[in-house]
Structure formats: C-alpha cells, structure tokens
Amino acid sequence: MAKLQGKIAIITGSASGLGKQHALRFAQEGASLAICDVREDKLMETRQLCEDMGVEVSAQRCDVGDVDDLKSFVAATVDRFGTIDALVNNAHKITEIRPFLEQTIDDLDIELRTSLYASWHMMKLCFPYMKDKPGAGASIINVASKAGIEGTPHYAAYAASKESIRGLSRVVAREWGQHNIRVNTVCPGGWTDNVTGNLESLKKTPGALDWVTDAFKANPFGTIGDPFNDVSPIFVFLASDDSHWITGQNLHADGGAWISA
After folding, report:
1. Active site residues
2. What is the CATH code for 8-248?
3. Helix H segments across the chain?
4. Mean pLDDT of residues grouped by 10 in the chain (261 residues)?
C-alpha cells in the first residue's frame, strides 16, 4: 500500500522547487493534497500533475506572508477534506543574496514573514484539525537550513529566519506531543528550479554561483541531489506513520553535506 494512502496533506509553496517535488511525491504515495503558492498558473500545473496520478487536490493562490490568505487557505482545505494529517511548511521568499552590511531590515522582515511567521500561523491554524488523532497521529514538517547552522556567508536574513524555525519547532514538539502531533524540521539539499531561477541574484555577488554549485556537491557522494528521488522521500517518511516515534528532531536530507554528532 502507498505510504500516505488516506492522509490529507498540506504543502505550501508548491508551484516549483522542492514544494512541487514534495507534492508530486506525496501524490505518488497516495495522499490527498492541499497546495498553495503565489504563482497561480504554475500551481495549477502542479495540481494537474498530481491529479493525473489519481489523487484529489485542492489548489489555491496564497501569499504565506499574509495571514488572511493563510486563514482562507486552511478554511478551504478543511471544507474540502474535513481534516489535516500532515502539514509541510515549505514556502519561503528568499531575498537577494549579499553581504550582511548590504542587507536591510526589510530583507529580514520579508524572510521572517514568509518563513517563521508563516510556519507559526499555519501550525496554529491547522492545530484544531490535527490534534488528538488516534494511532500515529499527525505530523508537522518545517523546513530549516544548513545555512543557519553553519552561518553561510551572504545569507544573514535567510539564516536567521531558518534557525528561528528550528527553535520554534522544538518548543511546539514538546507542547503538542500530548495531542499526538509530532513536529520535526528538515534541512534539505538538492538542486531545484528555484536555484536556477535565482541566477541573476547569484551573479550579482562575485563567485556566488560557483559557490552554490559547489555547495550542492559538497557531500560524501560528490553529487548534486535530485529533489524528487533524494529529498522528498524524507518528507514522505516524516508524514507517514513510520515516523510515529520521532519528534522535535532535525534531519539533514542533503547527502551528508552536514555531518555532526
């Protein structure tokens, strides 16, 4: 049987990049999906691809930095499916990559609103429909980054927002375990169309594109990960009943780019 058969999963930021690959992989594993993104045309392409796999999909334009949009999205999900089993807080607007002294408070505000605040709001909005489920319960998967752990140069706003998500997730994991909800974070590593779509920004910083390319290969395997085959299966595992005894943890789905005790 498919690993997510019968589950209702929300995945934000599903028009492209990792979010799209997660949606496709979750659909392959039998999950019914509620997906959103600000790019409605691309989002509908993802919906069609998932529906072609035979699963039910609700797709809605949503700016995760706008709490009213998030409320509308969750309400539509519940109207359609009645419950929520898994939440993947994937969406995040990344600002221009540049040295800390050149970054502004507006950069930080954008990153926090679309990552930390969005995850904060989505967890609270989804809680009534995830709590106290029998068996393996419900799963929340938030997205962190090695950039926050290692302090990657030129990623100050991004790193700050991603590390705050890890702290929030650990707190919520402890508080919501009593409601049979597990909360984990993943630091993914894999080349996506989001990276190629950010080429102009990368080119503005001397050496940044070469650095990013090398960074994606900086693992024991010496290869760049494929999101659908290498990264998304980790998210499937965390959304599945197989991960019922894991909460408050951070997993690096990056081919060993980060190895630490």
Report:
1. 158
2. 3.40.50.720
3. 17-28, 40-51, 67-81, 105-114, 116-130, 146-150, 156-176, 193-196, 199-204, 208-217, 232-239
4. 95 97 98 98 98 98 98 98 98 95 98 98 99 98 97 96 98 98 95 58 63 79 92 98 98 94 80
